[in-house]
Structure formats: C-alpha cells, structure tokens
Amino acid sequence: MKEQQIDIRFQEYGSIEELNAEDRELAEAAIEGMKGSYAPYSHFNVGAAVRMSGGQIVSGANQENAAFPSGLCAERTAMFAAGAKYPDKDMLSIALAGGVYGRITDEPATPCGACRQVMAQYQSKSGKPMSVIMIGHKKIWKFEKVDDILPLIFDSI
Predict the structure, then answer these.
(1) From the candidates 32, 75, 107, 144, which is the catalytic residue?
(2) What are the tens digits of pLDDT across the range 84-107?
C-alpha cells in the first residue's frame, strides 16, 4: 500500500474589489445573473457567468420546477447557453454567486457535483484550464482549474 495526497490550492479574496478587472467583471455578471433566478421552493438564488475565449460573457441563473429534479443549476444554464451560442469558443472561466432571497451568502456558494462534472467536460474539450470563482459576501475563492474542485474527474470514456 502506498499513501497518496491531493493538494488543492486557491486564492482567497476579502472583497470583489480585490479581484483583477477581468475577474471582477465576471463576478459582477454572476451577481447580476442572480436576478434571473426562479427559486420559488428553495428561495436560494444562484447566478453564474462564463467568460469565453473571444471575451464574451454568458450568464445563467438557477431555474426550479415543481417536478423536482426538472430544474437546472445556474452554472449549467450558463455553460449550456455559452456552448450553444459560441460552439467554437473555449470557456476560460466561470463565476458563481448564491444567496437566500437575493442576498449573497457570507461564505462562497459552491457548485454541486453535476455542475463540477460539466465544468470538467468543457475544460477537457478546450484542452485549457478553466478557472472557477466562487463568490461570498465576506470572501471570494478562486481556483485556477476545475481539477482543484473535482480532483478525480470522470473522464474514463
């Protein structure tokens, strides 16, 4: 038996103002995206924004449905819209923000496993790292690649 270890590195920021201009723009688009959330059951509004290799930003928001699990997370609405609208562009970065009744949580909102796997698929498609920015009111986390939030990516097929 050989014991192994996985190290995960990320940057933590105290406010959106500490981000560089490009990341701040993406974070603000994710926060703005929360306004498009339809969350009548959980009241947890999530917005996401994806930056494409051509500089375009595509936003999305979570969409709930009474026929659970027919809704969809903000991250996937943004990525699927971006993939459909710009099929020849790479996704370079994704930001997400969430909160109850539109008020951003103190701690960063984190993506579910399904969204992490979809991020991994688009990162794999591009062959380049896709950074992930998770926004909270009191702190913001930035991961340089999807592998850092999904270290054992499913890619066996």
Answers:
(1) 75
(2) 999 999 999 999 999 998 899 999
